[in-house]
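Anyone opening a protein record will find just a pair of labelled lines. The record below illustrates this layout.
***
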Amino acid sequence: MSIPRTIRTVFHAIEQAEGAGARVRRSIGTSKLRHFSPFLMLDHFTIGKGAGFPDHPHRGQETITYLLSGGVDHEDFAGNKGTIGPGDLQFMTAGKGIMHAEMPHENADGSPNVGMQLWVDLPKQLKMCEPRYRDLRAAEIPRASVDGGRVEVKVISGQSHGVDSVRDLAYTPVWLLDVTVRPGGRIAQPVPVGWNAFAYVLGGSAVFGSGDETRVVKEFHNVVFEQGGEFVEVSVPENADAEARFILVAGLPLDQKVVQYGPFVLTSQEEVYQAMMDYQTASNGFEKSRNWESEIGKRMT
């Protein structure tokens, strides 16, 4: 018999200001859920005209950006640049050092740019790897149809009901699924044993859990699951007014200390001090940051 995962906690992601004029709902990386290895931070962001994330550094983590609507440009000190649109993702490994900017499009209809950004810790032995990017376009993402078509799963990373994702996109093993459940639909989604898992509700409301242990969870809430168990069960009542949409994320926990100072995520205080010094002196991975300015960051001036 498969064992369902029970719910550890459910909490609301409160909207707050972040970056330059952006608004985010942060659910991992707050007092509610500080570190949930390997996850460091989860932001549901909204960035409009005149806002964004101008030039800033990173070391020691990976970021996964999933755009829900609009467009976001990126540019870094190594000459990498590009744009993601609705349904596209960008996986960035900061490794030993990156300095980049992430700036929104100005949409003709004035609509904001909305998406998710997840920070994933890197294993200690990979903290100083070379930085890299991988883009995944919406058209490349395979889909699974479940429960007679009442549930659709975009398999961004991982597996769902016989459908495998295109490829591994992060160094730290992570599953990322975008799930839509229509009224009357139900899904039992396996997750790797021993991995940490959570679900963030993007729209509507759904019933999470199995048997007598269920919770109705509304949009902008994060559902954190206990580590034990083999699958997560989610349903939407037949008489519901609308479908529910959520991202289900699972990752391999890392047995290491997390010491974070802003965009630097290492395993000791000394390593954080070193990262700050390397950035200030443009050395040990930050050489190209000296006198570098992104073109897209100049939109803020």
Observations:
- The chain has one domain: 7-251.
- The longest helix spans residues 269-281.
- The two ends are 60 Å apart (CA to CA).
